[in-house]
Amino acid sequence: LAPRHLMSIGDLQPSEFSSLVRNAAARKQAVKAGQAPTSLTTSLTGKTVAMMFSKRSTRTRVSTEAAVTILGGHPMFLGKDDIQLGVNESLYDTSVVISSMTSCMVARVGPHSDVTTLAQHSSVPVINALSDDFHPLQTIADFLTIHEAFPSSKGSDSGLGLNGLKAAWVGDSNNVLFDLAIGCVKMGVDISVASPKGYGIPDSMKQLILSAAKGVSSPGKLLETTVPEEAIKDADVLVTDTWISMGQESEKKKRLDAFAGYQITNDLAKRGGAKEGWKFMHCLPRHPEEVADEVFYSPRSLVFPEAENRLWAAVSALEGFVVNKGRL
Ligand code: CP
Ligand code: NVA
After folding, report:
1. Closest residue to atom 2 of ligand 1, CA basis
2. Ligand 1 closest atom vs CA 135
3. pLDDT in tens, the chain (328 residues)
C-alpha cells in the first residue's frame, strides 16, 4: 500500500487537521505536567527518520530532531553537502534508496515538485519541511498557538473552536501564508491578506486556498487587498513573515522598496483598527523590516511560544504519519 504523505495542509480533512493540532496540544500538556518525554511513547524505537534539507533551518531542524528523539527514534540529518541529491543523483534514485533504509523522509526543498517527486517514489511517508509553496509543520504549530491564545472563542464545527476569529497577514504572499490560509479556511478563521501589487497570491494558489472550503459548513473567508489597514480591521491576530524568502536574496533591494509601508507597528495596528487584544505571530526567522521591535518583543507577541510549538507539531505529525501510518 502506498504510504500517506504530508505535502500541505490541503491534503487533510478539517477533522484530520484539528486532530493533529489537538494531539500536539495533548503531548505538550503531558510533558509540561511533568510526564517524561520518553514515557509518551517509544513508537519510533529502532526507526530512522531521514531529514533531507537543501536549505538552512533552525526551528524545523531542531524540532524534528528533538521530536524523533522524544519518540524513541534516530534522526539522521542530511544537509545539501552530505548526500548526492541534486548534484550527482536524481530525486527518483535518492527517494527509492533512502526510503528503502528508513521509516520516514522529512524534506526541505526549493520547488514544491521536488518534495512531491520524492513522495511519489518513496516507500515510506514523506513530510514537507518547507517548499516554495507550503509549510505544513509551521501551520500545525500556528494553529496550536492560536488555539492556546484564544481558548474562550467557541465555534460550531471547526474542531478547534476558532470560528469567527480573524487573522490578518501583512507582507509577502509566500509558502507560510499559503498553508496558513488553507488552515484558516478549513477552521472557520477569516484571513485577510495585504500585499503590495505584484506580490499577491498567484491565481492558481488562490483557487487551491478557496477549494479548502469544500465540505466545511462555515469556512473562513479569504480577503485580499493592497492596503494593510484594510486587512487589519477587526483582526484578532496579525501575522507576517520575511519579505525575502530563501532563494530570493537577489531581489532584496527591489523587495525592500516594494514592501515599504508594510512593516507591522503599533501605529499601523491602531490605524487599521485591529481588535483591542490583538496578538502577533511570525514563523521566524525574523528581520526587522517586516515588524518593529515594539511589537515583536511585546506582550502581544506569540512568536516564542509559536516557535516552541514547532516541537509539538513535529511530534504530532510523526505520530500521525509514521507511527499511525496516516490514520489521523
Ligand atoms: N519557521 C521555520 O521553519 O524556521 P526555520 O527556517 O529556522 O526552520
Ligand atoms: N518564507 C520563508 C520561511 C522560512 C521558514 C522562506 O521560505 O524562506
Report:
1. 59
2. 3
3. 899 999 999 999 999 999 999 999 999 999 889 887 666 666 899 999 999 999 999 999 999 999 999 999 999 999 999 988 878 899 999 999 999 999 999 999 999 999 999 999 999 999 999 999 999 999 999 999 999 999 865 544 457 999 999 999 999 999 999 999 999 999 999 999 999 999 999 999 999 999 999 999 999 999 999 999 999 999 999 999 999 999 999 999 999 999 999 999 999 999 999 999 999 999 999 999 999 999 999 999 999 999 999 999 999 999 999 999 999 9
Burial class (CB in 10 A: 0-12, 13-18, 19+), 216: middle
Q: Which atom of ligand 2 is nearest to the CA of 174?
A: 1
Read off the DSSP letter of residue 268: H
Of the listed ligands, the closest to the CA of 247 is: 2
Residue 138 Cβ contacting ligand 1 at under 6 Å: yes
Name the residue among 319, 307, 311, 310 with its Cα closest to residue 49. 319
Q: Give SS3 for 53.
A: strand
The ipTM value here is 0.99
